From TrEMBL:
Keywords: Acyltransferase, Cell shape, Cell wall biogenesis/degradation, Peptidoglycan synthesis, Transferase. InterPro entries: Acyl_CoA_acyltransferase, FEMABX, PG_Glycine_Bridge_Synth. Belongs to the FemABX family. Pfam families: FemAB (PF02388). PANTHER family: LIPID II:GLYCINE GLYCYLTRANSFERASE (PTHR36174:SF1). This is Peptidoglycan bridge formation glycyltransferase FemA/FemB family protein. It comes from the Bacteria.
Length: 384
C-alpha cells in the first residue's frame, strides 16, 4: 500500500492519502451524520463502466477522510484515467484545502490519472420557496442567481475561491445540468419538524393532491417488483422524451446498495384498484434521503399517485430521523417562457428551498492529455 503525503499545512496538519479497503471505507461512512450515496463503496459497484477505488486520508494512524474515486479511461490511451469523485470527497471542507487536496493529486497522478474531477458537498446559496415563487412571476428576474439568496454560506465562497486559486477549472454549465451531477438542487429540511408542519409548508395544490390520492384509495407500499417499476419508467420516458436506463442497471443498483445496508434503498409503488399508477425510488445514507427515480402512468393521473409516493417517502425519511429530503436537481431558470421552469415549479410546491452547491471542478494533472479528452467530449456532445 502506497501513500502520498504533503507537508504540514497552515494548521500544522500532515495528511497522507492512500487506498483503503471497502470495509474501512464503509466504517468511515457509517460514522458520519450524512454522506452522499455517490460516495459510498457500493456506488462503485453500480457504475460498472468505471473502475472504482476507495481512498483514505490519514492524520498519523487516524482515518480522517474518505472518498470513492471512479476511474474513466481515455479513448485510445487506456493507461490514463479521469479520476472522478462525485459529490465528494468526504473531508473537512472548512479546513486547509491544500492539506487535503495536494496529497490526493499526488496519489492519483502517480497512479495514472490525467485529471481529477470532484464535486464538493458544500453549499453556497439557499433560496426559500417564497423567494422562488416571487422570482417566477417577477418580469425582471430570469434566474435564481438574479436574486440574493436567503442564506449564503461563507464556507462555500471560500472553497470556490481556493479551488480557483489552486488551478481547478469549474465544470458546472450555466443551465445547471451537464454530464456530471447538478449544481442546483431542491431540498426539504426535516430536522425538528412534524408531519403537520411539513404539510402546512406545502402549497395548496400539493396538499390537495395528497388528500385526493387518499380519498381515491391510492395505496402506497414498499415493494420488490423492479420489472413493474421499469415498465412504468419506460412508459414515462416515452411520454416525457428522455432515454431510460435498462432494467439491469436498477437490478445492480438495488443489489449493491442493499448488500451494503438493507435500508439503503427502497422501491415505493402506488396502486389504485390494482393498477400501478406511480413508482419511486428512495435512497438514504445516514440523515440524508434522496428521491432518486420516479415513474407514473398517463392513465389515472387524476388519482395523484406520484404525490402519494412522494408524501410516503417524506414521512418515512422523517421517521428515520433524516435532516434532509433531497429532490435532486433543478435548473436555475425562473423564466416563465423556459420549458425547464416546470421542474422547479413542481418541486417548490413541496415547501423547502432551492440550493446552489459549489459545483464540479477539474484539476488537469497532465495538461496535454486533458486537452485531448476535453476536445473528445466536446465533439461527442456535438454529435449527440
Amino acid at each position: 500500500m502506497s501513500y502520498s503525503e504533503r507537508g504540514a499545512g497552515a494548521g500544522g496538519v500532515r495528511l497522507a492519502v492512500g487506498s483503503i479497503s471497502v470495509a474501512e471505507h464503509l466504517a468511515f461512512v457509517r460514522a458520519q451524520r450524512s454522506v452522499s450515496f455517490l460516495q459510498t463503496p457500493a456506488w462503485g459497484q453500480v457504475k460498472t463502466e468505471w473502475r472504482s477505488e476507495s481512498l483514505g486520508w490519514y492524520d498519523g494512524r487516524q482515518l480522517v477522510g474518505a472518498g470513492l474515486v471512479l476511474h474513466r479511461p481515455v479513448p485510445r490511451l487506456d493507461r490514463y484515467t479521469l479520476a472522478y469523485l462525485p459529490e465528494g470527497p468526504v473531508i473537512d471542507w472548512t479546513g486547509d484545502l491544500d492539506a487535503w487536496l495536494d496529497p490526493l493529486a499526488a496519489h492519483l497522478k502517480a497512479h495514472g490519472a490525467f485529471a481529477i474531477r470532484l464535486g464538493p458537498p458544500v453549499r453556497t446559496h439557499t433560496w426559500s420557496a417564497a423567494q422562488v415563487k416571487e422570482g417566477i412571476v417577477a418580469p425582471d428576474i430570469k434566474r435564481l442567481t438574479d436574486m440574493s439568496g436567503e442564506w449564503a454560506d461563507p464556507v462555500g465562497a471560500r472553497v470556490t475561491e481556493r479551488l480557483r486559486g489552486a488551478g481547478w477549472l469549474p465544470q458546472s454549465p450555466e443551465d445547471g445540468f451537464g454530464v456530471g451531477h447538478p449544481q442546483f438542487k431542491y431540498e426539504i429540511p426535516l430536522a425538528g419538524r412534524t408531519e403537520d408542519e411539513l404539510l402546512r409548508a406545502m402549497n395548496q395544490l400539493w396538499r390537495r393532491n395528497i388528500k385526493r390520492a387518499a380519498k381515491e384509495g391510492v395505496e402506497v407500499t414498499v415493494g420488490e417488483d423492479l420489472k413493474a417499476f421499469h415498465d412504468l419508467y419506460v412508459h414515462t420516458a416515452e411520454r416525457d422524451r428522455f432515454t431510460p436506463r435498462p432494467l439491469g442497471y436498477f437490478e445492480t443498483m438495488f443489489a449493491a446498495l442493499r448488500a451494503e445496508d438493507p435500508e439503503r434503498i427502497r422501491l415505493y409503488q402506488a396502486h389504485h384498484q390494482g393498477d400501478l399508477v406511480a413508482a419511486t425510488i428512495l435512497v438514504r445514507v445516514g440523515a440524508h434521503a434522496w428521491y432518486s427515480y420516479g415513474a407514473s402512468s398517463t392513465h389515472k393521473r387524476e388519482v395523484r399517485g406520484s404525490n402519494a409516493c412522494q408524501w410516503a417517502m417524506i414521512r418515512d425519511a422523517l421517521a428515520a430521523g433524516c435532516d434532509t429530503y433531497d429532490l435532486r436537481g433543478i435548473t436555475p431558470t425562473l423564466d416563465a417562457d423556459d420549458p425547464h421552469v416546470g421542474l422547479i415549479q413542481f418541486k417548490v410546491g413541496t415547501g423547502g428551498h432551492a440550493v446552489r452547491y459549489v459545483g464540479e471542478w477539474d484539476l488537469p494533472l497532465r495538461p496535454m492529455v486533458y486537452r485531448a479528452f476535453d476536445l473528445y467530449m466536446k465533439r461527442r456532445a456535438r454529435r449527440s
